[in-house]
């Protein structure tokens, strides 16, 4: 059995004809840069998300950086973000001369913990970046309230939760990435809406921010060769947009397939002592970018090794808190510590999950996990 974390080949095989046709169209019209597929994707994605503006860009990290650049922050201004996330979230903050203020997460949802955040607020705190980790939304209602109270911008890092719905207490439902002032996402191949290379997008309902973001992503120009601000060159490739135009139509069915696979794991793994299946948030749907277990009693690494000997891949997202990374040394004192983040870095283990459910494979993964805990 050849088991993979993500079965991109199986997925491609089912949409091959449509994808190849769209790619061929791009090759035939040679509009390689900002071709019609890019605009088409922008409009379809705006419709799907029910958001006023989508600004496609080159990747998810660029999306975060451009979002941050659009806010007119000053060097030394502080941006709150979780310490338990992919490096990109905090990296761009530091790159822009801002200070990442790394905070703890909730042990069940893995998302930013809002209670107790007040103590991190200083006169320099200007923004907060919730990350919708593994596929479900952070508690956006509380985050928006907290941000309003302290006049903060909210930038959602939605690279892992595209397609997820968040429900407010008044019943309003919004797609993740469209709730904060700006949302960012990635179309890296293994993401839930992945292209066949790099890609990303920025979302906002604010017309002025949208204009600024579009300008920054395009060398700071609105009119060609007239540059108002220092920007960058960040475009979604036309060929990638062509792929996304096909795959966007399947995004909801892909989320369903991921949920089906997650439910299958849940049903068979929830009985194992020393293992915790992923908790569901009350107010968010889950799109299972990752299916992440908590392995208790210090057994995570031995379980991973055991699975790997059976040719079952698994991943640790993420093994080291951001504040313990050498690159982030300058932002924290040497004894800085966040208890939940540290615990999760020792306990989390993500199993293969994707859109191509195969019962035989899932049964094998489940039976080997059972064997490990029996022995
Ligand atoms: C993947 C990811 C990014 C970065 O996206 P790229 O397209 O790889 O630059 C940012 N934040 C999170 C949480 C991610 O998972």
Automatic annotation (TrEMBL):
Belongs to the DegT/DnrJ/EryC1 family. PANTHER family: 3-OXO-GLUCOSE-6-PHOSPHATE:GLUTAMATE AMINOTRANSFERASE (PTHR30244:SF36), TRANSAMINASE (PTHR30244). The keyword Protease does not apply. GO terms for biological process: polysaccharide biosynthetic process. InterPro entries: DegT/StrS_aminotransferase (IPR000653), PyrdxlP-dep_Trfase (IPR015424), PyrdxlP-dep_Trfase_major (IPR015421), PyrdxlP-dep_Trfase_small (IPR015422). The modification N6-(pyridoxal phosphate)lysine is found at residue 191. This is DegT/DnrJ/EryC1/StrS family aminotransferase. Keywords: Aminotransferase, Pyridoxal phosphate, Transferase. The active site is at 191 (proton acceptor). It comes from the Bacteria. It comes from Paenimyroides baculatum. GO terms for molecular function: pyridoxal phosphate binding; transaminase activity.
């Amino acid at each position: 059995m050849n088991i993979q974390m993500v079965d991109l080949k199986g997925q491609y095989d089912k949409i091959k004809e449509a994808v190849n046709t769209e790619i061929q169209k791009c090759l035939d019209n040679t509009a390689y840069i900002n071709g019609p597929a890019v605009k088409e994707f922008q409009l379809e994605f705006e419709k799907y998300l029910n958001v006023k503006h989508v600004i496609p860009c080159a990747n998810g990290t660029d999306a975060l950086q451009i979002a941050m650049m659009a806010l007119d922050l000053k060097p030394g201004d502080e941006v709150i973000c979780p310490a338990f996330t992919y490096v990109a979230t905090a990296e761009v903050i530091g790159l822009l001369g801002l200070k990442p203020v790394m905070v703890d997460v909730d042990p069940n949802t893995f998302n930013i913990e809002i209670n107790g955040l007040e103590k991190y607020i200083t006169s320099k705190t200007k923004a907060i970046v919730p990350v919708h980790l593994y596929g479900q939304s952070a508690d956006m209602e509380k985050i928006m309230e907290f941000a309003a109270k302290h006049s903060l911008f909210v930038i959602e890092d939605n690279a892992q939760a595209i397609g997820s719905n968040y429900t407010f207490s008044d019943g309003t439902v919004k797609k993740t990435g469209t709730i904060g002032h700006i949302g960012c996402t990635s179309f890296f191949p293994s993401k839930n809406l992945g292209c066949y290379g790099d890609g990303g997008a920025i979302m906002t309902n604010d017309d002025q921010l949208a204009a600024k973001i579009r300008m920054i992503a395009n060398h700071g120009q609105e009119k060609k060769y007239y540059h108002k601000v220092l920007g960058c060159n960040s475009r979604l490739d036309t060929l990638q947009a062509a792929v996304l135009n096909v795959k966007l139509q399947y995004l909801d069915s892909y989320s369903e397939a991921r949920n089906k696979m997650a439910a299958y794991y849940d049903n068979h793994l929830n009985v194992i002592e020393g293992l915790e299946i992923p908790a569901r948030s009350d107010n968010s749907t889950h799109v299972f970018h990752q299916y992440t277990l908590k392995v208790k009693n210090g057994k995570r690494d031995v379980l991973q090794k055991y699975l790997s000997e059976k040719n079952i891949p698994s991943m640790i997202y993420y093994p080291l808190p951001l504040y313990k990374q050498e690159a982030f040394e300058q932002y924290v004192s040497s004894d800085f510590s966040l208890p939940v983040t540290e615990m999760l870095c020792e306990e989390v283990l993500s199993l293969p999950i994707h859109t191509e459910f195969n019962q035989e494979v899932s049964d094998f993964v489940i039976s080997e996990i059972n064997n490990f805990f029996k022995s």
